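Appendix B, record 7
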Amino acid sequence: MRIAIVDESATRAAVIREGLAAFDDCETFVVTERRGLVARIGEIAPDIVLMDLGNPSRDVLEEYFAVSRALDRPIAMFVDESDEESIAASIDAGVSSYVVDGLAPHRIRPILDLAVRRFNAFARLQSDLAEAKGKLAERETIDRAKRILMDTRGCGEPQAYTELRKAAMDQGRRIIDIAEAVVTAHSLLGGK
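Structure tokens (predicted):
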């Protein structure tokens, strides 16, 4: 597992490295510069990003939340103090694990595992949501194509669907492709 440790303090980064030292499956990279952070993390291509911010100012937090939004990786963020607004902003930014006053070597690996699992669970939810939205959009297009056929041919819904399905089978295409073609053709011919 490739792990990027983002910390301006080498001392704090050493605590995280110490917590990961006992595990053979970890390759760690320490990033201490805030400038070009997204590009640097992109070069490392880590499996997870651990950010130790200590006691950051609001501006620094916002900067790191922006970095978090740009990365499609599990992120565990360590801070010394927090408030509800920072916690909410970290969730919105996609931080998988937001740990307040919990930087200790023996806690690093469980936090890392939790961050990865939460990230994967959230990614599955996003994928499921995108799939559901796609199916709903397809269903709406098919329904619209059926209404067009019903209006133009004076047939009922079962007959309109049968015609869409038959055209799809005859052409070796999916029914959504035929429905999209019907909707597009109708639109080009001045239909609403």
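Remarks on this record: The longest helix spans residues 105-153. The CA atoms of residues 49 and 75 lie 5 Å apart.
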